[in-house]
Amino acid sequence: MEALNQEVKQWSQQSAAMMAAKVRMLTNQNKHQLLKAKKGIGLAKSIKYKNLMRFGNVERIVFPFAKHGYFFAVGASRGHKAKTNPRKKVDWYNFVFEDRFEKLADIVVRHYGDEAALKASDLK
Questions:
Q1: CA–CA separation, 73 vs 99, rounded Å?
Q2: H/E element holding 109?
Q3: Helix (H, G, I), strand (E, B) or coil at 85
Q4: What is the DSSP string of 32-77?
Q5: For residue 63, which of 32, 92, 35 has the smallest C-alpha distance?
Q6: Which segment, 9-13, 55-59, 86-90, 104-108, is predicted with the most confidence on average?
Q7: Which domain holds residue 115?
Q8: Cα–Cα nearest to 3, from 118, 101, 105, 107
Q9: Among residues 105, 39, 112, which one has the least CA distance to residue 69?
Q10: Which candidate, 53, 45, 64, places its Cα nearest to that of 9?
């Protein structure tokens, strides 16, 4: 299963890099909002990944990023109600997962599919 963990790690790295690249490609106005965080950490630099393990296998993949990235994605802004909010939603992360989930599924099926076939043949 080490091969599975390694492939999932590579998938996670590539996905985090694609999210950061999307942030860097935004328009100048949007980029200013994202790069100037209160704590001085730009959103692109804050995007990381964590592969959480259980029983030696990757069980969960987490992509933490600066909190203002979420507010930017949903179009929230301080001091405005939802109907009078001047900001627009900017989807900067969902597209990455929509495009990449199939590849992750293929990786998992390739490794667990073989294991399931072996267990099924042992039952006969």
A1: 18
A2: helix 94-123
A3: coil
A4: HHHH--TTS--HHHH---EEEEETTEEEEEE----HHHHHHHHT--
A5: 92
A6: 9-13
A7: 2-123
A8: 107
A9: 39
A10: 53
Count of structural domains within the chain: 1
> For residue 85, what pLDDT band results from cuts at 50, 70 and 90?
confident
* Structure token digits, residue 115: 């294991």
Tokens of 59: 């069980």
The tokens of 6 are what?
């390694």
Q: How many CA atoms lie within 13 A of 92 on its CB side?
A: 29
Token digits of residue 110? 């390739």
Q: Which residue's structure tokens are 């990449």?
A: 100
